[in-house]
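Record 1 of the preview.
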Amino acid sequence: METTQGRPARLRVGVIGPGRVGSVLGQALGRAGHKVVAASAVSEASRERVAERLPTARVLEPAQVAEASDLLLLTVPDDALPDITEGLASTGADLRGKLLVHASGAHGYGVLAPATLVGALPLAIHPAMTFTGRDEDIDRLANCAFGVTAPEQLRPIAEALVVEMGAEPVWIEEEKRTLYHAALAGGANHLVTLVADSASLLSAAGVPEPGRMLAPMLSAALDNALRLGIHGLSGPVLRGDAGTVAGHIEQLRENAPESVASYVELARLTADRAINAGMLKPEDAVRLLDVLRR
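->
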């Protein structure tokens, strides 16, 4: 792979899986000076996304996209990645010297082994960002971090591609890739569920605009957590208010039984972390944990 002063040369980019992530990464690489030349799109929605976001791309079959590209983005669902890689390698498409890039957080570069064996250069670059399919997605790439995993000799190219897209490369070892992704999914995905659940409970309590009430408090809580970790904690678990927690559980059982299990498990985890940090007195912890065991 030719480089210019340590940066990737201008590349012809192909996209297999031009969904929310693939179309955004294609756009970002285009803005960096590369050219998106081809994409594989099956559904009508995918074809529309290619036309809107990747207008220089021709819609081709996957093997043809690979042949036309110097850098091939495999931006398909995590579980589909092994099969699509195996299928590509078995088509006979010439992958020698081509950068084969996936954006799955759960996989390292090992999942690309079938293509690597026939000469592809494997890179795993995962944006630590949530995408909604809206226009602001491309702007959110700027200043976000990417988890980067690649063979050591390809690390400079992988990191340079991320920098070109305006983001920060963070090196993740191959064997730590799933743990890395579990951390991100647990934080971002479950946060959405927790906020949605909280808003629903507030609505049930008669609050007309739950989002308006939650926004200042949740923004402060997130800021505290990011700056202070567990020491940013507040609330009844930290105070050891076992009676309050018991009241919460009782009301949830009556009004939102589907929320009881998550409340109890998160309260236990919160209590454990507070105990380990020396923030919760032992006598308060005993009463609290007794309530959470019922």
